[in-house]
Amino acid sequence: MKIMLDAGHYGQRNRSPVTPEYYESVAMWRLCEYLSDALARYGFTVGRTREEQETDLAVTARGRKAAGYDLFISLHSNAANSESVDRVDVYGPIDMNGRVYELGSVLINAVSELMGVSKGSVKTRRSSSGDDEYYGVLRGARSVGCGAYYIIEHSFHTNRNASLWLLDDANLRALAEVEAAVIASFYGMVDGFEPGDVDMNGRLDSVDVMLIKRAYFGTLTLSDAQKRLADIDNSGNIDIFDYLLAKRKYFE
Ligand SMILES: [Zn+2]
Q1: pTM value surpassing 0.70
Q2: Architecture of domain 2-186
């Protein structure tokens, strides 16, 4: 299970008009580092769109780094004309299915609760032509066939409380832990392994497909952790559907 993280802007970009010490680019870079560490601890393979805080990369090029990744997340705080605007929004794929919407939704709930701001909503934004993403990073991720890509807007740095909150390093660490926990639970990671990785070697391969088939036929007894990993659809038992899901995931 591979996740590509994008820290958004580079250098000192998007200064808060109400909290002069706050730059969106600096805070989101820190959050990206913490989130990268937290996700790795859960067993995800984590990539980053940029190596250095000071070096820019064009938006679509950052999005294209999602090639071969299961999930792409671009980290931001938003800006509004009115200081009172204070909520967490997530932008997802223009043609997202229910499950991709659901991940956006659980992220909004967790982040808004931690930040103590209103829940925004899972939004989409189409390009003027109507058949592509409006945002360059998302357009890039879409162009390389990544199935789940998001922009998370961690409230608004035009709001005083939100910008002060994001300036606090302890809050950024907490944010990273909460986001990583939500993502790990959403993907059903067990002890750092993705669903289906029954032999716990870090990837779902033909051996796992065979083990799930044998567990389903009752010719193999699995440990409790292995049972949870084999029960890919979370139905409570290992059945033909888990075997078919494992096969599909393996051949993807
Ligand atoms: Zn931004």
Answers
A1: yes
A2: 3-Layer(aba) Sandwich (3.40)
